[in-house]
Amino acid sequence: MTYAVTDNCIGCKYTDCVSVCPVDCFYEGVNMLVINPEECIDCGVCEPECPADAIRADTDEEGAKWVAFNARYASLWPVIAAAKEPLPGAEANDGLPGKRDTIFSPDPDPQTA
């Protein structure tokens, strides 16, 4: 079992989850985070920390749909090991539908890379 970051992280990028992760399995893109499923130890401490409720277990239907996406971008983006401020407009983006198709960026965060 692993956890996956879902589309509600897009445009928000809260990093509360990063500060509690004991294995540094979060990776950072321009406007979202992902979890490397090969590094996640299934401890679950990140899930309740996400203000946007964007982290799901792979046993959850929504989480299962995002595992391959998380694995792909974890292999392309740099690891993030410390919390940062959320993106400007995070509160307004929280809960918007269809963010993967409208505002997702596949680019790594240049400040982390």
Automatic annotation (TrEMBL):
Region (Disordered): 90-113
Cofactor(s) it depends on: [4Fe-4S] cluster; [3Fe-4S] cluster
Source organism, top-level taxon: Bacteria
PROSITE patterns for the chain: 4FE4S_FER_1 (PS00198), 4FE4S_FER_2 (PS51379)
Protein name: Ferredoxin
Gene3D superfamilies: 3.30.70.20
Membrane-spanning ranges: none
Keywords: 3Fe-4S, 4Fe-4S, Electron transport, Iron, Iron-sulfur, Metal-binding, Repeat, Transport
Function: Ferredoxins are iron-sulfur proteins that transfer electrons in a wide variety of metabolic reactions.
Matching InterPro entries: 4Fe4S_Fe-S-bd, 4Fe4S_Fe_S_CS, 7Fe_ferredoxin, Fd_C, FdxA, RnfB_subfamily
Segments forming domain 4Fe-4S ferredoxin-type: 1-26, 31-60
Pfam families per record: DUF3470, Fer4, Fer4_4
Keyword presence, Nucleotide-binding: no
SUPFAM superfamilies with a match to the protein in the record: 4Fe-4S ferredoxins
Single GO molecular function: metal ion binding
Positions in coiled-coil regions: none
